[in-house]
């Protein structure tokens, strides 16, 4: 399998759009800040995108207003994505372009807000009666409405693997001939459910997250969104990148703890390598899930060591963006593509004393190196794993 | 147009607890005494803590695998729902409003949309891919399409589960459903089974469509429940012969299905 990747973009605490993000990565400047989210008193750091609250959606989209969809709107305006879609729909009709968006939160923050103002009857009050927004399809419905794309539209919500899995479903849709191209993406906004939820699991760090560091003590939660246009190769023969492979698997172990030997992770990695038809040593860079939780980093390093040698450089970029959960897959897919474009591999930020129990050595300083093939890992609750492999097409 | 087989079906609602009961009620039989939901795949201790939405899903998924005689750890899964586990959402939102630091960690991890497929994978020991999707009003039809394409593209059996639970009070101004309904369809590439329950020819058309009329089942107004949009497909599977169905998948496209049913599971 090989599918062309057209325009792509990302928006997170590490930057709105690619140029800002690249500047943060090159300058090793984290987007995380002490928690200042309205209504949340947790002592932690967050990856927050500025001024989302002030974004007002155009009239025809106003019924879909939510923090997440405002973030989705901001993200759509970056890096000429809408122009690229307009170019594409001049060549193929809009009903041949599908939409698949990954999310963990959908617009639950809006539902939370509605519950703070329930009517005496127990009903959601008039201003919050937005059926699509309270559904799981809120971000997919929003992106279809905002872009005018008319192909099938679906939202995937498999926790933190959501917006990696969008590439797998899109690849199948295109291969099957359902559509010729898919706008894939991921959107997750900050909300109380995830902040207090991860706090209840004692997974939230009160300091800056330190992926793969010996002293790591939990995650920082972030918000973000990103998009990529995936299409049949004939539609863009000169594309810079291709999706070479994907792997999807289940841990079959625990709802919120990864399989102790990384069984699901290794299964997904093997599938992705097989689909891509490349040996493990042909992977130059791996963008790790690397959440900075004790369990994830230890087990992910163990899983990686099962398949990769020291030839493969690996790093986590969570300390730039925070863990954007349902948007982590697309954010890190975009970070991986950017690393390939610029030949600049981000070294794990805040990893000062690498954990000897995290058996696979991770890169801690930025490194200039050409990358032909790269992989990105996304692992979620429910033991849901997705792995993507991208390649430079001119190599 | 493409062919896909349906080799197993599962159904659970407050009005019928399996496929045989569904077929009987559909044929005008008496509404059975529905036994409490007790999916055997989930160990008793976990079953007590598992939410209704998970128990419904695992129950119907297990029913479909048994009927299709396909090992539950062999199937990839696609779960779909419009509003997900609204009971859990109701709990989360009330607790976050009243005392956010007291949120239950179990309820939090159960709040992921892929809770049902996660519990399924754990219960069956399956490392197969698990998906959880939504497409608002078209969640049922898009899940069918997603599952069918995955089964064909990857040459594996795919278990599609579509469900919606009864709405809590807060949701009722826009989603006033009193019933819970869950169904599972086990899809396989053609020739995977020598005697499929039904063979379906499907394709997407660029034309508008209304939802097909819902069959009469237990005298209930099923139009309230968004998972019950698939009832016409279940009725076609239950009825020997060929049926043509068209479901909308967006405001300007539709999924057309030609369902050829052996109808033999009715008295199986």
Describe what this molecule looks like in 3D.
The complex is a heterodimer of chains A (395) and B (268). Chain A is of the alpha/beta class and 395 residues long. Chain A has one domain (3-390): 3-Layer(aba) Sandwich (Peroxisomal Thiolase, Chain A, domain 1). Helices cover 31% and strands 21% of the residues of chain A. Chain A is built from 12 helices and 16 strands. Chain A has helices at 18-26, 67-76, 81-91, 108-115, 131-134, 138-147, 162-176, 192-200, 263-276, 294-307, 318-321, 328-342, and strands at residues 3-12, 15-16, 33-34, 45-47, 97-102, 153-156, 181-188, 221-222, 224-231, 241-250, 285-287, 313-315, 344-345, 367-368, 373-380, 384-392. In chain A, the strands form 3 sheets. In chain A, strands 1, 2, 5, 6, 7, 9, 10, 11, 12, 15 and 16 form an 11-stranded mixed sheet that branches. A 3-stranded mixed sheet of chain A has the order 3-4-8, with no helix packed on it. In chain A, strands 13-14 form a two-stranded antiparallel ribbon. Chain A is globular and about 60 Å long. The mean pLDDT of chain A is 97. Chain B contains 8 helices and 8 strands. The radius of gyration of chain B is 18 Å and the shape is globular. At the A-B interface, helix 4, helix 5, helix 6, strand 6 and helix 7 of A face helix 4, helix 5, helix 6, strand 3 and helix 7 of B.
């Amino acid at each position: 399998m090989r599918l062309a990747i057209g325009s792509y973009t990302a928006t997170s605490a590490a930057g709105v759009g690619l140029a800002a993000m690249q500047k943060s990565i090159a300058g090793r400047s984290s987007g995380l800040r002490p928690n200042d989210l309205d209504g949340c008193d947790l002592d932690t750091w967050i990856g927050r995108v500025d001024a989302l609250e002030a974004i007002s959606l155009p009239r025809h989209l106003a019924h879909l207003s939510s923090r997440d969809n405002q973030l989705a709107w901001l993200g759509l305006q970056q890096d000429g994505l809408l122009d690229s879609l307009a170019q594409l729909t001049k060549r193929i009709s809009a009903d041949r372009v599908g939409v698949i968006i990954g999310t963990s939160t959908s617009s639950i923050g809006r539902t939370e807000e509605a519950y703070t103002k329930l009517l005496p009857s127990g009903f959601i009050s008039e201003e919050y009666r937005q059926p699509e927004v309270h559904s799981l399809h809120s971000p997919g419905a929003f992106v279809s409405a905002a872009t005018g794309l008319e192909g099938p539209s679906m939202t995937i919500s498999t926790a933190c693997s959501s917006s990696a899995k969008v590439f797998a479903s899109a690849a199948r849709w295109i291969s099957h001939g359902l559509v010729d191209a898919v706008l894939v993406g991921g959107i997750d906004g900050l909300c109380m459910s995830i902040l207090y939820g991860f706090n209840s699991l004692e997974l939230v760090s009160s300091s800056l997250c330190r992926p793969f560091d010996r002293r790591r003590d939990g995650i920082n939660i972030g918000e973000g969104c990103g998009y990529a246009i995936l299409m049949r190769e004939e539609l863009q023969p000169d594309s810079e990148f291709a999706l070479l492979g994907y792997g999807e698997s289940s841990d079959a172990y625990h709802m919120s703890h990864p399989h102790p030997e990384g069984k699901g992770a290794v299964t997904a990695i093997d599938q992705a390598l097989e689909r891509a038809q490349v040996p493990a040593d042909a992977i130059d860079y791996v963008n790790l899930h690397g959440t900075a939780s004790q369990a994830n980093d230890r087990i992910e390093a163990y899983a990686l060591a099962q398949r990769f040698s020291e030839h493969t450089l690996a790093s986590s970029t969570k300390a730039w963006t925070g863990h954007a959960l349902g948007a982590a897959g697309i954010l890190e897919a975009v970070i991986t593509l950017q690393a390939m474009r610029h030949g600049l591999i981000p070294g794990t930020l805040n990893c000062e004393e690498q954990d000897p129990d995290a058996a696979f050595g991770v890169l801690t300083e930025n490194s200039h190196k050409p990358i032909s093939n790269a992989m990105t890992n996304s692992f979620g609750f429910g033991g849901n794993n997705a792995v993507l492999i991208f390649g430079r097409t001119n190599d | 147009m493409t062919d896909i087989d349906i080799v197993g079906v599962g159904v659970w609602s407050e009005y019928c607890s399996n496929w045989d009961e569904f077929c009987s009620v559909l044929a005008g039989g008496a509404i059975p005494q529905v036994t409490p939901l007790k999916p055997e795949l989930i160990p008793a201790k976990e079953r007590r803590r598992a939410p209704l939405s998970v128990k419904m899903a695992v129950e119907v998924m297990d029913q479909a695998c048994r009927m299709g005689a396909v090992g539950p750890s062999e199937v990839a899964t696609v779960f779909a729902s419009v509003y997900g586990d609204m009971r859990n959402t109701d709990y989360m939102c009330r607790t976050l409003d009243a005392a956010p630091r007291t949120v239950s960690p179990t309820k939090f991890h159960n709040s992921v949309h892929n809770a049902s497929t996660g519990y399924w994978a754990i219960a069956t020991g399956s490392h197969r891919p698990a998906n959880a999707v939504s497409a608002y009003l078209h969640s049922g039809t898009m899940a069918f399409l997603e599952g069918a394409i995955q089964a064909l593209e990857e040459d594996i059996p795919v278990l599609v589960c579509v469900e919606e639970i009864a709405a809590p009070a807060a949701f009722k101004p826009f989603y006033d459903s009193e019933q819970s309904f869950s169904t599972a369809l086990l899809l396989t590439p053609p020739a995977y089974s020598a005697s499929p329950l039904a063979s379906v020819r499907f394709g997407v058309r660029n034309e508008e469509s209304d939802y097909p009329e819902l069959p009469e089942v237990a005298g209930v107004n099923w139009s309230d429940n968004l998972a019950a949009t698939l009832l016409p497909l279940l009725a076609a599977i239950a009825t020997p012969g060929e049926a043509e169905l068209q479901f909308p998948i967006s405001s300007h496209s539709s999924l057309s299905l030609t369902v050829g049913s052996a109808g033999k599971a009715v008295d199986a």
